[in-house]
Amino acid sequence: MCYDDNARPPMPPGANGTAHGEDLVLTATDGNRFAAYLARPDQPTNAQIIIYPDVRGLHQFYKDLALRFAEAGITAIAFDYFGRTAGLTSRDEPFEFMPHVQKLQLPTIFSDVAAALAYLQTNGGQGRSTFTVGFCMGGSLSFMTGTAEFDLAGVIGFYAGMSRNFGGAGTLLDQAAKIHYPALGLFGGADQGIPPSDVQSFDEKLTSAGVEHEIIVYPGAPHSFFDRRADQYAEASTDAWKRVLDFIKAHTH
Residue limits of the Dienelactone hydrolase domain (predicted)? Predict the structure, then answer.
């Protein structure tokens, strides 16, 4: 599990706008009903972002993160992965996520992403530059979305694992060369679950494929360093926020 129930995203530097959030239930084209959370800025820019949670699905960390993006002027929607197998139940810590993770299939995840994107586009987001960002498993899925045709402006991943095979679709390393949007990857140098060689291989595959990208590794930072409680990694978190917001600004039309 990437974040526990007490984890909260750090505050983005310089963001002082106001925003409002609401819980949603969205429906994919196959009829799947799944939970989502929308955060709207009171003063929106021309950017919007889809947030991919960690392996536990949509919980409070990601609702708060959506609000932090919205306070920076970026409309944000976070969505849950497990509507098909766990319904609309809570994703608080007692939720046993792994049996549901093992049933995930990339095409149905993309179907839910399409529903989230459609909701954004039909609720004021038509014509905005769309980004994805994810954490842990969600980081992998954010990058994998970059292999599909979603008309994105960029894909972002925090501590994206390289070895998970999503229902036979291959791993992130298998698919890296197929990413065709600008990419930003952020990793902890002391992450016990992601070997530095995997990060280097990901970087090299993107370079070989001609994908515009930037890979940042924070020396000494562990998995899940991006947490308001982790004072010792506050500098890394501030830098990560700055890089994410700069990346979005640079690729927003």
Answer: 34-251
